[in-house]
Automatic annotation (TrEMBL):
Keywords carried by this UniProt record: Isomerase, Rotamase, Signal
Entry similarity comment: Belongs to the FKBP-type PPIase family.
Keyword ATP-binding: no
Low complexity composition bias: residue spans: 33-47
Protein known as: peptidylprolyl isomerase
Enzyme class name: isomerase
Length: 324
């Protein structure tokens, strides 16, 4: 369910255009052993109706941060996507297209044991809400950080569209149930630190940035700027967080453009487009977040990537939001 490399539960990747362009512009490879399996395009789906309440839902014991025990009231799950707030947090509200760090426990309706959980691994998972099953994409937004949620996901919003997940014991017609503890959220409007320290290299950057530190940005490539022939990573402003470690999960906000102007995108939204939301991946597996290794959280980074067989040269402004 989450981007765990230990359990081969596939994600339903939302075809976020700019994120895909970023990946193409910076690497010809995939994401290593990240168990993602693209199978749907979120641009072709609509938000599911969410029923808030507890009628017909299982019972879940335990406090926030503790592995739960789930008991089912019968063999027949409730219809549709159901979300019950077991305990409400006092943090910010999670918005659509956010990136979230969460602990979770997943079980097939009526089963005796979970098919996956982060509690047994001792650490929460980070994921973009456009990179997971539709039941999470629609069921988690609107709730606050610090909340414990009980979510019942019907097969059409879970693994049903993929024919289930036999390796995890999930059938195509199975309703799946999750307890989710929302630990942290990075919303589409979030950016790096407003008090990050600009570097001397920022003055020589071949881009003009519209937007202050701590704010969403757009940028233009300077007229006459030399197209990159190799990957270049420049820290424009240094945050005060811990440096990103190799193989750590990273959430970044970004603005992106091809050098020839043939494509652009942004986690913040650009030219009237809806925000795509922060991008998350493991550092060191061939994605754009590799540029953040050893860079402190809160920093702003410029990435210039050469042309490949798949894409023109590109430029991206990346704000390092957080790690897990």
């Amino acid at each position: 369910m989450s981007p765990s490399r230990r359990r081969p539960l596939p994600l339903l990747i939302a075809g976020a255009t700019a994120a895909a362009l970023l990946l193409a512009g910076c690497s010809g490879g995939g994401s290593g052993d990240d168990p993602t399996t693209p199978s749907t395009d979120a641009s072709e789906t609509t938000g599911a109706e969410v029923t808030e309440g507890s009628e017909g839902m299982p019972q879940a014991s335990g406090e926030f941060g503790e592995s739960p025990n789930i008991t089912f009231p019968g063999d027949t799950p409730p219809e549709g996507l159901q979300v019950e707030v077991l305990s409400e947090g006092d943090g910010p509200e999670v918005e659509p297209s956010s990136a979230v760090t969460a602990n979770y426990y997943g079980i097939v309706w009526g089963a005796d044991a979970q098919f996956d959980d982060s509690y047994s691994r001792g650490a929460p998972s980070m994921f973009g809400l456009n990179q997971v099953i539709q039941g999470w994409t629609d069921g988690i937004p609107g709730h606050t950080v610090g909340s414990r949620l009980l979510i019942s996901v019907p097969p059409d919003l879970g693994y049903g569209p993929q024919g289930g997940n036999p390796d995890a014991g999930i059938g195509a017609e199975d309703t799946i149930v999750f307890v989710v503890d929302v630990v942290e959220a990075f919303n589409p409007g979030d950016a790096g630190q407003a008090d990050a320290t600009p570097t001397p290299e920022a003055a020589d950057a071949p881009v003009t940035i519209d937007g202050n530190l701590g704010e969403p940005v757009t940028f233009t490539i300077a007229e006459g700027a030399t197209e990159p022939t190799e990957l270049q990573v420049t820290v424009l402003a240094t945050g005060t967080g811990e440096p990103v470690a190799n193989q750590q999960s990273v959430a970044v906000a970004y603005a992106f453009s091809y050098w020839d102007g043939s494509g652009a995108g942004s986690s913040w939204g650009w030219d009237g487009a809806d925000p795509e939301g922060p991008f998350t991946s493991f550092a060191g597996q061939g994605s754009i977040v590799d540029a953040t290794i050893d860079v402190p959280v809160g920093s702003r980074v410029l990435v210039l990537a050469p042309a490949t067989d798949q894409a023109p040269a590109s430029a991206a402004i990346i704000d390092v939001l957080g790690t897990a």
